Amino acid sequence: MFSARSVVRTGNVLLSIALLLAAGILRDAGSGSAVDRSSQGPSDRLAPAAFAPPFVENLGQVRNAEVAYTSLSGRLVAGYARGAVDLVLMDARDVAISEDPSARVLPTEVRRLLIRVAFEGSVPVAPVGLDERPGRSHYFLGDNPTGWRTGIRGFDRVAYAGLYEGVDLVYRSDPSGLKYEFHIRPGADPDRIILRYEGAEEIRLDPVGGLVVRTGLGALRDSPPTAHASGREIACTFALRGPQAVGFDCEGWDGSDPLVIDPLLYSTLLGGADEDIARGIAVDSAGNAYVTGTTWSADFPTTPGVVEADLSGQTDVFVAKLNPSGTSLLYATFLGGGGHEEGYAIDVDADGNAFITGYTTSPAFPTTRGAFDVSYNNNEDIFAAKLNPSGTALLYSTFLGGRALDVGHSIAVDSAGAAYLTGYTNSTNFPTTFGALRGVLDGAHDGVVVKLDPSGSDLAYATYLGGSSSDFSLGLRVDAAGHAFVAGSTLSFDFPTTAGSFAQTSNGSYDAFVAKLDPSGTAFVYSTYLGGRHSDQGNGVAVDAAGNAVVVGNTVSRNFPTTPNAYDRSLNGLDGFVAKLDPDGSDLVYSTYLGGVSLVYAYAVAVDAAGDAFVTGSTRAMDFPTTSDAHDVTYNGEFDAFLTEFSPDGGRILYSTFFGALQDDIGFAVAVDAAGNAYLAGMASSDSFPTTPGAYDPSFHGRNDAFVAKFTLGPPPGVSTIWIAAGLVGATALAVALWFIARRGRRPPAGRKPLRLRKDR
Fold first, then answer.
1. Pick from 522, 501, 654, 644: which is nearest to 581 by CA?
2. Strands 264-270 and 276-283, sheet pairing
């Protein structure tokens, strides 16, 4: 029996390739849905079609008995049979189901084409579903109840075990398309793998090494494969094996080490001859990555026409923008004066303007006319800067601080262009606004929370945040309503908390805290401690679509609060933690440790549209949890960066990987785009740090380099769903697709209004 663990134990090759529909040829599947999602909440209504189980077993809803499992990716329907996969491409004209403008549309004229992917020379093994989803799906196809099927299981993956000698094949879904992976054990021969596309008009390789399968309904595209073995990059490419057949050439792999061709879309280094560290990352709607950090390198790469092309002091902030494929710099600039600067965080607005914060010791740090504060105050000052989309001009730049230490640690921008930032200070004269939560410094250090107006010329609000001891605000996000969510750590027994919040009393030593400020910055929506008897620190926070705050950090408390459904309820050592607070801060949706036998630091978190939490940081734990489809299941040495994806209930790890090589490699920041791709930024100290072919800079330069990486991961976890088709109320896109595969003789009736459905309980 194929299992994830068996793959890990034997040491495998993992070939992972995305199968995509050519842009503009086949439309998005959502247009065929008959389910009205307009008033559905997250808790009691049917989720969108994208939340369906990626793979469902066939219990007769598909008339072809050879098909054991089916999946839908856009207008591509796949049927998984013994020894082959049938790909059904569809092209449809969409018409409204009814005259009601709120109604969805349904394909009425559908052309379809079958492409069979045959595994030439393989063993005709049957597919097996892996990672069963908790819900069940129900298919009411046609108006005859004998054709209805209920209680159908869904799976995250489908595997063909032993397809070739020493080779397993795994299919999984991805926001950008269908992906397939070949797990190849040591001693097996990847040259034996041949995929024959029966029914294709032509197959060819595109200029970047991707596979193009031309059909009568457009093109299927496979992204170019990437590979590594034991931390060493291996060249692996598609190779045409005939008019309709393709295989793989993996040069430099001798068959003795695990070889991985995986979900890593790109990984690039970024730096010069000295030290470079990336601490913040953001992504725009086009998939461009914006990165900030600190550089000591005079030869840090910059681009023509930017704000600053030369290093100004001992260290400068850098700001860089990478294209979606990670192959080129759209811009890169220094930002600094004659002293010492560090860039800690970045965000980007809908127009592509970048917002950066950190601190500076330079009186000559660049500011702009009319900015809130153009005069250096003393010691370290916070700075806040807004850079135009091309990196060629500062739209504003301002100091922010008092006579002592002031550090900006996190920044976010709202839809109106106002920038929110948080950090900490021990300045007694830090600027605050009338009606602030706290107008005076109360301890050795206090957190600060600031909202700048869109022009950067004035403070919408500014407040201290803390008690009578030391308080550090480290993470901030803002929701669509303008609430600022702040996470950090406090040693103050009198840190301000609110009635009804999760924990209103200090637990001793440092506690993490989470606070939600109202849009005016003058009152808390909630404020709570989060911790146990020993030291706990909140490092990062994200906010999901329902208003839940997801907080990550570190703990050494054995009694750190966890929830019954948590992935890990036991302290392993110095652990990371991941906790989700409900919208009013009164209870934990989930809380879990994240750790191993050694050190684990969780530094940053991002949340996708489904509520999955993506966590990054660093670890020295050899037994840090990884998943079978990981980029790297093996600890490499010193500190490794990691990327871990949690399910919305915190009970499962959906994806987890080491990311690094022999020396210290640390993930400091993570972002997620609308397609569910995860972007990491951090510091690489290993000269063998994993990079990808064609990346902007695959070569290690100095003592430390910044790194930027993009991963495409699996779809969000499933919910129980009901699919309605032909004779009832129309059809969802998936039901329509299965209906055509089954060759049913009638179209679904039009003129029906969408039916609102509740999830199974």
1. 501
2. unpaired
Contact yes or no for 705/681 (Cβ under 8 A): no
Give the residues across from 659 on adjacent strands. Answer: 641
Distance CA 325, CA 265 (A): 8
Q: Are 608 and 615 in contact (CB under 8 A)?
A: no
* pLDDT the model gives residue 229: 57
Q: Quick one: which of 523, 686, 692, 531 has its CA closest to 618?
A: 686
pLDDT at 409 over 60: yes
Residue identified by tokens 């068996």 is: 6
Amino acid occupying residue 325: S
> What pLDDT sits at residue 357?
99
List Cβ neighbours of 207 (8 Å cut-off, separation of 6 or more): none
Cα distance between residue 60 and residue 742, in whole Å:
9
Exposed/middle/buried for 285, CB within 10 Å: 0-12, 13-18, 19+?
exposed
Tell me how far apart the alpha carbons of residues 606 and 613 are, in angstroms, rounded to a whole number: 6
- For the record, the structure tokens of 188 come out as 């097996």
Question: Could you give phi then psi for residue 147, rounded to 5 degrees?
Answer: -95, 0
Query: Phi/psi at 500 (nearest 5 deg)?
Result: 85, -5
Asked if 620 and 663 touch (Cβ cutoff 8 Å), the reply is no
pLDDT digits (tens, 9 = 90+) for 226-260: 665 554 566 778 899 988 999 888 876 676 665 55
> What confidence score (pLDDT) does residue 262 get?
58
Strand duo 721-724 + 128-140: pairing: parallel
**AA letter at 402:** G
Query: Which segments within 128-242 are labelled E, that is strand?
Result: 128-140, 149-164, 167-174, 177-184, 195-198, 202-205, 211-215, 218-222, 227-229, 232-242
Give Cα separations from 288 to 495, 525, 638, 679 (angstroms).
39, 34, 31, 10
Among 58-72, 183-197, 387-401, which range has the highest average pLDDT? 387-401
Type of residue at 736: V
- How far apart, in whole angstroms, are the C-alpha atoms of residue 665 and residue 269? 12
The model's pTM is 0.67
Determine the residue type at 671: A
Residues whose CB falls within 8 Å of the CB of residue 455, separated by 6 or more in sequence, listed in order: 370, 396
Render pLDDT for 411-470 as a digit per residue (tens, 0 to 9).
999 999 999 999 999 999 999 999 999 999 998 999 999 999 999 999 999 999 999 999
pLDDT digit string, tens, across residues 260-276? 555 678 899 999 999 99
Which of 71-85, 221-235, 490-504, 633-647 shows the lowest per-residue confidence on average (mean pLDDT)? 221-235
Nearest-angstrom CA–CA distance, 397 and 411 = 14
The answer on pLDDT for 9 being more than 50 is: no
**CB neighbour burial string for 196-214, b if at least 16 within 10 angstroms, e if fewer:** bbebbeebebeeebbbbbe
Which residues make beta-bridge pairs with 541?
A: 551
Beta bridge partners of residue 384, listed in sequence order? 357, 398
Distance CA 752, CA 730 (A): 7
Mean residue pLDDT of the chain comes to: 82
Q: Which residues contact 462 (CB under 8 A, 6 or more apart)?
A: 430, 431, 432, 433, 436, 448, 449, 450, 451, 521
* Cα(592)–Cα(609) distance, integer angstroms: 21
Q: What stretch of H or E contains 739?
A: helix 733-741
Q: How confident is the model at residue 110 (pLDDT cuts 50, 70, 90)?
A: low
Q: Model confidence at 86, in pLDDT bands (50, 70, 90)?
A: very high
Q: Give me the domains of the chain, ranges plus CATH numbers.
A: 4-264+725-741 (no CATH), 266-465 (no CATH), 485-669 (2.40.10.500)
Q: Is 718 exposed, middle or buried (0-12, 13-18, 19+ CB in 10 A)?
A: buried
218-222 and 232-242: which strand pairing?
A: unpaired
Provide mean pLDDT across the span 544-553. Answer: 97
- Joined together, the tokens standing for residue 419 give 């920038």
